[in-house]
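Let us work through a complete example step by step.
Step 1: write down the sequence.
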Amino acid sequence: MSTALNEERPVIMPWKDPLQAKIPQIRDGYLGAVYYGQRRSGDFYDFVRPTPDRVVFGLFDVAGDVKQTRDIVIALQQKFRSAGALLFEGAEVNEPERLLALWIEINRAVMLAAGGVHSCPAFLGCYNEEIGTLSYVNAGHTPGLVRDMSKIRQLEATALPLGLFSHSVPDSSVVAVRPGNTFLAFDTAHETCVGVLSKVQQYMCTAPTHNDVTALSVVRNS
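Step 2: predict the structure and record it as tokens.
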């Protein structure tokens, strides 16, 4: 694939612990992410801003408890940040194609860190602030939801979960994020995430003690 990373890029030293995600600001709306639970599993999210107009984000669910998944999460996060920054830099970038290349890079990193097969459903996205588009790869993850004034659209799976097959071929898609037509008109992204997780807790009639629950949202102003 023409978007493969340069094999001569500098080697980045491994991290000792996962790094805390910093939610970037966007000029035409809000980004938000909320984690809810007892940190028992490998759920996490992260962001990369490779250019002033792009934000690359990922929502990951590494199978297993937090002790079992620690090394995998570290390797996955490191690859997501380094490859995400390199693949999406520059003005002329085909974002759906680069997301496929990012999926391939991360998939290799998961399998290498796990020493074989290890399931990791994920949702990868690139939000372009300049033209208001969201390119995404849903790798066996819970469908994303895009709400406009007339309907709710599900962003179904376009690829297998990370960590299952070394030569699987993913697919990507693009959805328009129009001003004022995403989520609720007066909610911020943080409030949207909190509201969704609150509904989950109400449905379960208890706090989710058996697993972690994470929500990530993009809200564009009207």
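Step 3: interpret the result. Strands lie at 29-36, 41-51, 54-65, 122-128, 133-139, 144-147, 152-155, 173-176, 213-220.
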